[in-house]
Amino acid sequence: MLADLTIKEYLAKTAGDEAVPAGGCAAAMGAALAASLTRKIAKLIASRMDIGEQKIQMESLADNMGALSDEFTHCIDADAKAYQELMAAHKMPSKTEEEKVLRDEQIQKNTLIVAMVPFDVAEMAMRMMDYIAEVAKLADKNLLSDICTAMFFARSAALSGLQTTRTNLPSLKSKNVVVDLTIKSSEIEKQAVTKERELLDWIKSSN
């Protein structure tokens, strides 16, 4: 399990000769870091508040970020597993017509999973950016650099996840799936870039 490795072990594996972990896992890792950092900031803000609606909001948001961090961490291993199963499908026997059909079905099935795991990471990371912006509005100036770091990681996770998805789309035979994911990927990318720019503009205008 990649998620159980130490940071040094994970980095060594990423730099190693094995196919995974690679880009999809890195996208999930970046998103998990963004969620964890946002959780830390939200908890800190809540700890400085008296009992009230905003304190409850920050505590709830911190809990949500904890759950998201766990989900992104799960996606690290899910991405690696999906890729390994795709490689196994490519190695299936294909001497008979029946074997060829079964092999092709498994390749298509696992290619879709390989495309969908980073897509899900990208979509969740993009939506998480709204929560990061909410935290920013209640953070003091000393926390804004951490807020920006979380936002940058989230945007990077979204864009890199989408790129991994797009890389696998040409291998899918379902044109409807390809068109749907292409359209949705473009929208997610647009929203991620916009959300990051809006936060930076807000910080600039508030200083």
UniProtKB/TrEMBL annotation:
It comes from the Bacteria. It holds the Pfam family FTCD_C. InterPro entries: Cyclodeamin/CycHdrlase, Formintransfe-cycloase-like_sf. Residues 6-181 form the Cyclodeaminase/cyclohydrolase domain. This is Methenyltetrahydrofolate cyclohydrolase. It comes from Bacteroides sedimenti.
